[in-house]
Amino acid sequence: MEWRDHGILLSVRRHGENAAIIDVFTEEHGRHAGMVRGGASRKLAPILQPGAQLDLTWRARLEDHLGSYHAEPLRSRAAAAMSGRLALAGLNAVTALLSFCLPEREPHPDLYTRSERLLDLLGNEDLWPLAYLRWELALLEEMGFGLDLTACAVTGSGSALCYVSPKSGRAVSREGAGGWAERLLPLPPVMLGRGSAEDAEIVQALRTTGYFLDAHLAPSLGNQPVPEARGRLTDLLIRRL
Question: Three-class SS of residue 68?
Fold first, then answer.
């Protein structure tokens, strides 16, 4: 068995004296692990850093084997990731969530494209928070827990949408909320593609998406907790306020 693909390196762990096992989110083959011979060497270790864009050739005797990778660097994001605390926290959050959410060997080409574009914004602190929020909404959608923010779940109106139902993920208007408003999640304008996209709104929006990661997505994956890297990113954004 053999195939060639592009991929985003999610994680690396040492294997034996000189090899490494890498977990990669590939464009056509999904999240896929494999061994890199010499991956822990001085030559390859600097290349095999989380977030790196790689040209990969995978080989195995049988399809269900771990197999081995030959990896060539396409783009390193190490310098961008080390440009500031927000960039490093962002990289860690994205790679951790992809490792957490994605089933092995199941293609998600749209999410792959979004993830690649998001990681290319590392180091741009003006654009990153909003881009990350949009990516997290797309991640929920891809995993089957997308939010429906087009119209009020109660009245059907598309105006004055202020809340999100924690059960259905649908938008709710001020009129539709009535006396239940305190039990609903906030829907800041930035989630609707409006507003100023200031950090305060983005943090509020991430609290809402975070609820669906914790209360809906995580239980569907065996009730493992959402990676701490995601919380560290939101904490950093809160401190920026």
Answer: strand
